[in-house]
Design goal:
about 120 residues
Length: about 120
């Protein structure tokens, strides 16, 4: 990057930070969905094995698919969330470094008033 004004890069980083935040939130929703699928599939499997309802191959197949699908979704989602979190931390660190390069100016009275009187 050149030695120009870092404000544009900070704006780009802030947009990326928002995107990473949205991605992480989406991952949280998928995590809940995967837990629900695992739980419901497990309950159906257990109920079928304990004889709570007459054996039905379609129900048992659906229950197994729900458990396995939930496990796969959970693992994939976890790795995506971890990647997004790492990228978010990187972007925030870069943004903080760029903000540190900017000369900040105090906004307020220039006449030296202290507010004492």
């Amino acid at each position: 990057m050149d030695e120009g004004d870092p404000r544009e890069e900070i704006e780009r980083l802030e947009a990326r930070i928002e995107q990473f935040g949205a991605k992480i939130e989406s991952c949280r929703k998928f995590a809940v969905a995967s837990r629900v699928a695992i739980g419901m599939g497990g309950v159906l499997l257990l109920a079928g094995l304990l004889g709570a309802f007459r054996f039905n191959a379609a129900i048992m197949t659906t229950a197994i698919a729900a458990v396995l699908g939930g496990i796969v979704l959970s693992g994939s989602n976890r790795s995506t969330a971890n990647e997004a979190s790492d990228q978010l931390a990187e972007a925030e660190a870069r943004r903080a470094a760029l903000i540190g390069l900017i000369e900040l100016h105090v906004v307020g009275d220039d006449n030296g008033a202290t507010g004492d009187g």
